[in-house]
Amino acid sequence: MQVVDDYRLNLGDFELVPIVIGGMGVDISTDRLAWEASRLGGVGHISDAMLTFVSDKKYKTHFTQNKFAAHREWQGRSDKAGVRFDLEEVHQAQLNHVRNTMENKSGPGAIFINIMEKLSMGDPAGTLRARLRAALDGGIDGITLSAGLHTSSLQHMADHPRFRQALIGIIVSSTRALKIFLRRAKQLSRMPDYIVVEGPLAGGHLGFGQDWKKYRLKSITADVIKFLKDEGLSIPVIPAGGIFTGSDAEEYLRGGAAAVQVATRFTVAEECGLDAAEQQHYFAATEEDVVVSTTSPTGYLIRMVASSPCLDSNVKPMCESFGYLLDSDGKCPYIEEFDATPLDDAGRKQPVRENMCLCYHFSKNNCFTCGHYVYRLKDTTTRNSDGSYRILSAEHVFRDYQFSRDHQIALPVGT
């Protein structure tokens, strides 16, 4: 039986171990995690989710404070039409993170950035353009376009000198979505360098409706591979979502995939952006604890642990500081529901049931997004003397994917 290391992913000038660590936000897929993936010869992602906020934490900038100061008068208003990000600050925040990540990269692997279209930020076109171009300016190896159809994203980069140099990929959950993107790509004569096919067992936001259970990643992946072959297109396909063991990964590679994208098992790595207490929460999760919720104001379903503090909360909207999900009219479903939610007998706002304040809760790591198999994480490690689960190294998890056989999972050794 073959193992993942028997295969290679060829992208541009890279010959890579076919393991891609997904881009989990907000800064869950840290630069440290991406560096390890690159050092080990695979692909690591960073995420551009809420990067002005991330830049303030990591690089001591003041973008969030500046934005609040500029929009203080909008506090308490349902109308946020005038709340806007400074596009130069958006560009600088993205550039800070990408440049720092790339300047400290080592090894033969690659580092990509996950850029989400659904982060509308009050100015969907302007902020997306700033983020895309800053990633190219910072020297990123590749850009993975996620959370949307990205029909305008290639145009935003078309006149950039690195538009045909950097690798560009798209995340889709169906052949139909891929066809929409490819039509625009053909118009610009810039086809994607890779395609990530994300199935219904993935973590975080999902590209499926309430009928997500009837879909299977293997079927979608096979459909995409066949479509590309029929169209005469040789584009690497990378399945993602629910690939928990090296043997799972090898089965996809044997079936024609070029690599696999994985994330859940890296949430409990030392280099991950979750703190130790949050990682223990993931270890302790049971299958019954995992829910697919409709509470994201993006309109997408979102998979998370049911005990996440973000659910049924009533935090006041903080769009003057955040506002990452405001549309071009300054609206967000959470604001509308928050305003319509009545007070209790003590004059306190009752829980907001149908939506959550994604900006606030992601900034506090209160939303325990996870892949379907998060409840299996406890089987990948050992217990400490105090009963807690042992945190793993990213190298340990990566090597286990790379070399394991027969769906075996290597437990950590030593103390």
Fold and architecture overview:
This protein has 415 residues and is of the alpha/beta class. It has one domain: TIM Barrel (Alpha-Beta Barrel). 32% of the residues lie in helices and 13% in strands. It has 13 helices and 13 strands. The chain has helices at residues 31-39, 51-59, 63-70, 87-103, 124-137, 153-157, 175-187, 217-230, 246-254, 276-284, 333-340, 358-363, 394-403, and strands at 9-11, 14-16, 19-21, 43-47, 110-116, 142-146, 167-172, 194-198, 204-206, 237-240, 260-262, 290-293, 301-305. Helix 2 packs across helix 4 (87-103). The longest helix is centred in the N-terminal third of the chain and has 17 residues, at 87-103. It is globular, with a radius of gyration of 21 Å. The mean pLDDT is 96.
Principal-axis shape equals globular
CATH architecture: Alpha-Beta Barrel
Ends apart, CA distance between termini: 32 Å
Number of strands: 13
- Broad structural category: alpha/beta
CATH superfamily: Aldolase class I
Strand content: 5-15%
CATH class: Alpha Beta
Q: State mean pLDDT (0 to 100 scale).
A: 96
* Computed CA radius of gyration, to the nearest angstrom: 21 Å
Low-pLDDT stretches are none
Which series of helices and strands comes N to C?
EEEHEHHHEHEHEHEEHEHEHEEHHH
Order the strands across the largest sheet as they lie in space. Answer: 4-5-6-7-8-10
Biggest beta sheet summary: 6 strands, parallel
Report the helical percentage. 25-40%
| Helix count, DSSP H or I runs of 4 or more residues | 13
Number of domains: 1
CATH topology: TIM Barrel
